[in-house]
Every structure is written in structure tokens, then in C-alpha cells.
Design a protein that fits this description.
CATH class: Alpha Beta
InterPro entries: NAD(P)-bd_dom_sf, SDR_fam
Radius of gyration: 18 Å
CATH topology: Rossmann fold
Order of helices and strands: HEHEHH
Protein name: 3-oxoacyl-[acyl-carrier-protein] reductase FabG
Number of helices: 4
Family: Belongs to the short-chain dehydrogenases/reductases (SDR) family.
Number of domains: 1
GO molecular function, one term: oxidoreductase activity
Keywords: Oxidoreductase
Helix content: 25-40%
Number of strands: 2
Structural class: mainly alpha
Strand content: under 5%
CATH superfamily: NAD(P)-binding Rossmann-like Domain
Shape: globular
């Protein structure tokens, strides 16, 4: 969140919260509503990786990734939509990844991995380094820095004619 601190001004409120918690989401929505009286834009940017061979990736890791990456976005949408509907408008931006359309190997549980955890793989243990290298490919070299992307998205969404789809990078 410190990377986004300079985005905070009268038009943007960045909040750190737990998108896997109904209570945390409700408190964040209530905070914005009490402070601003409305919610104009939600930028859903939460996400965690869960990379590895599905045969050996612990189910708890897969469940946590889906809880954050999929259900967390939905939880936020459900939290803000009633307020947007009540005032007759609003925008929701769900940040995704190119790997949602072009999956990478070893990221079957969710193709938004940012690295490997140290699990006790048995079947694929001889390939662990290669799997980790491939899973990190979209997060190194020419990948877009998350802060740069967040600024790009915020500026486009706040423009006088925000686009329906925002892309960045090559």
C-alpha cells in the first residue's frame, strides 16, 4: 500500500483490507460511505498466486487463491453495488492478468502466480526449479510494475471518457 500512497488525494481513497473477510469489506465500504457519502469507482486489485502441479498443490492453497482472487473481487462488487445503484451510477474495474486468457504452465489453480511456496512435492520435485522459473516469467524482465499499472488504471478510469477495457504493456 505504501507504493500507492501518493495516489491518495481528494478523488482517490486507497484502503488496505482483507477481501476474504465479509466484515473487513463491510467496514471498508462503511468507511468510504461515511467519509465521502458515495462510491464512484472500485478498482479491484487484490490477488495472490498459487502455482505448482495440481496433483501436489495443497487444496488449502488453491482454496485461498480462489477466495482472494475470485470471491474477493465478487465480495467487493457485492459490497459497493448497492451504493452505486442507490445513487444511479458508478464504475467497477476488476484487475486481471493476461494469463487469464493465455494460461501459463503449472498455474492451473490460478494463472496469476507471483512465485512458488516451498511445498513438499513428491512427483514433480525434480522439476521444481523449472516450474518456479516458468511461473515467475510474467513477473520479471519486461513485466509491468504493479504501481505503474495502478497509476495507469486510475488515470484512465478517472478520465472524462473512461474506456470499457484498459490494457497496458506489450
Amino acid at each position: 500500500m505504501s507504493d500507492l500512497a501518493d495516489l491518495q488525494h481528494e478523488q482517490i481513497q486507497t484502503l488496505e483490507l482483507d477481501v476474504s473477510s465479509d466484515d473487513s469489506v463491510a467496514k471498508a465500504v462503511d468507511f468510504v460511505m461515511s467519509r465521502c457519502g458515495k462510491i464512484d469507482i472500485l478498482i479491484n486489485n487484490a490477488g495472490i498466486g498459487s502455482t505448482g502441479p495440481l496433483a501436489e498443490l495443497p487444496l488449502d492453497v488453491i482454496k485461498r487463491a480462489y477466495e482472494i482472487n475470485a470471491l474477493g473481487q465478487l465480495r467487493m462488487v457485492q459490497g459497493v453495488v448497492p451504493h452505486m445503484v442507490a445513487r444511479g451510477g458508478g464504475s467497477i474495474v476488476n484487475i486481471g492478468s493476461v494469463v487469464g486468457k493465455v494460461p501459463t504452465p503449472w498455474a492451473g489453480s490460478y494463472c496469476a502466480s507471483k512465485g512458488l511456496k516451498d511445498y513438499d512435492w513428491r512427483i514433480y520435485k525434480n522439476f521444481k526449479d523449472t516450474i518456479a522459473e516458468r511461473a515467475r516469467a510474467s513477473q520479471s524482465g519486461k513485466s509491468t510494475d504493479a504501481t505503474v499499472f495502478a497509476r495507469h488504471v486510475a488515470s484512465r478510469v478517472l478520465s472524462s471518457s473512461p474506456p470499457k477495457t484498459i490494457t497496458s504493456g506489450q
